[in-house]
Amino acid sequence: MNHRFYIIDDDKGVRRVLKNIIIQYDLGIVIGEADNGKDAIKDIQALDPHIVLVDLLLPGLDGISIVTEIKKMKCAVNFIMISQVTSKEMISKAYTMGIEFFINKPINVVEVISIINKVKEKLNMHEVISSFEQAFHNMSMLKDYKSNIKIPTVSERDRIKKVLSQLGILGEAGSNDLVELLLLILKQEDTEKNGLLNRKLSELYKMLNKRYQNDHKTSCNIGAIEQRIRRAINKALKNIANMGIEDYGNEFFIRYSNTLFDFKEVRKQMDFARGKSNYGGKISIKKFIEGIIVELKNVF
């Protein structure tokens, strides 16, 4: 299991050190960071990290207040507190509020690795227990299953269209190109699929154009295909940003803002839509395509 980390500290140097330790020692992936509690709480709700490393003393909301707020939201997050504070009373309060462990500053690499591994062991144990519980539940459900009930199958084309519909771009001109391109990739074996995803986008567009020629006897300009796809994904970014503005807890915003886009770019687009910035977010066509493939594999 690749554990997701979020770091909260008003010292950029500390955040950088912690991030480097997590990456260098292959402890997981860092999906976000913040220098204040307000932004952190919003991000944690949207990104759903497994482990949060949070400084005790922060401007505005302190670390204990952040932990308290997140716990109220019933988010399944494990907290590791970081601080120079040696007060037994404050440390005791932090543990009472729900932190798992406490790391003292200045940062010690060995201590950070040891504590993170302890939290990961706890998470892995919970996962094993949950899998056993789910297995027993499934066995119980199986007894009541009626063999004459037929479960309708859903085609990959319809599954892709469902995602594009949730993003609000099914009617865009580039949506059909995205559907056909994704089907082209999904029909390959896993090894060939990975090879396709590692190719340049221009090569994928050429393959898609060749498919149009063979299957539909039509030919498209490669540049036109690229522009249609780019416009459709840009529209999806705008729609996701608007979902987040209207409701930060929106199901599709939470699901897609970090899997199909870079979350930092989504936030830029949100600021642009609010009139707080002159520049909107940027898209990565490769990340969008890879994200939908992962989404189809994991969700449906």
Automatic annotation (TrEMBL):
Limits of the Response regulatory domain: 4-120
Phosphoprotein in keyword set: yes
Keyword terms: Phosphoprotein
Protein name listed in UniProt: Response regulator
Lyase as UniProt keyword: no
Organism (species): Crassaminicella indica
InterPro entries: Sig_transdc_resp-reg_receiver, ST_Response_Regulator, YcbB
Residues annotated with 4-aspartylphosphate modification: 55
One Pfam family hit: Response_reg
